[in-house]
Hints:
By secondary structure, the chain is mainly alpha-helical. It contains 3 helices and no strands. The protein is globular and about 30 Å long.
Amino acid sequence: MIEQFDVGNTLERGLLRLYKQAVAERHMEVAEQLLCALEQLAKSDPAGEHAVEAAYLWICCDRRHLDA
Length: 68
């Protein structure tokens, strides 16, 4: 059980990092796919829901920064 958590947590962090990078570099099609992957991961492990929330907050904050 601990190993499964570690793998899921590592995957979640990696996907979120790549998602943030894709958004920052304006690769929105890639970012969308990464967000879908985060959502799928959260469906299989509800503990991953915070990564999905962080991803949505990241894009909201990033867009506000661009509009300024």
